[in-house]
Amino acid sequence: MPLPDGELDLLLADVELSLSAHGRDRIAVVWPRGADLLARIVAGRRTAPALADSNRGPSARAVAARLADRLADRLGEPVTAAWRMLTGQAPGGPEVVYRTEWDTLLLSVRGALWVRVAPFDAGGDDSTAAAGRRPGPLRLRLRTGEAVYVPRGFMCEMSEVRKPTLLLELSLPGTG
Fold it and tell me: Residue 166: how many CB atoms within 10 A of its CB?
């Protein structure tokens, strides 16, 4: 399936609008138009797209790279892309826990999961967290086509994955 620029631009415009409206230091949920395009492109894949290509159109790796390049052009800063496949094999606890080293957009391309986001330093010495300017913890359900923007320095816990779930992570390494 070809990657139409119009749908890609809708997705990127919504992400850019959300970032400008909410600021880069806050958690933001985004329902970007055109996100279903990514879901259609990777439909039917059973493995992590970064590891498997398809002869049915552009590879998922190429789609992610193109999306990152176009977002970088719009924002005027570097953007990297990575696929994350969650399999739901961690019953009773989070499947993935990590600290965002850069501002990161998590886009659910297939499946659903719970995401808990909290400032890493919520109990620490960061004056912005203590002053209440950094929200959290926040727990939300992320379904196919939905995205959450997580600023640098936040903890992400991904859990309650009931079937294989595919996320596209777009990171802005210039924010670290």
Answer: 22
Q: Note the pLDDT tens digit of each residue in 72-95.
A: 998 888 999 999 888 876 666 677
What phi and psi values does residue 21 have, to the nearest 5 degrees? -75, -40
Buried b (16+ CB within 10 A) or exposed e, 117-127: bbbbbeeeeee
pTM of the model: 0.77
What letter represents residue 68's amino acid?
Answer: A
- What amino acid occupies position 175? T
Q: Where are the alpha helices (DSSP H) in 23-145?
A: 35-41, 60-75, 127-130
| CA–CA distance, 87 with 84 (Å, rounded to integer) | 10
Contacts of residue 27, Cβ cutoff 8 Å, sequence gap at least 6: 117, 135, 136, 138, 148, 149, 150, 151, 154
Structure token digits, residue 68: 């990152």
Using one digit for the tens of pLDDT, what is the confidence trace for 41-73?
665 544 444 444 444 556 778 888 888 998 899
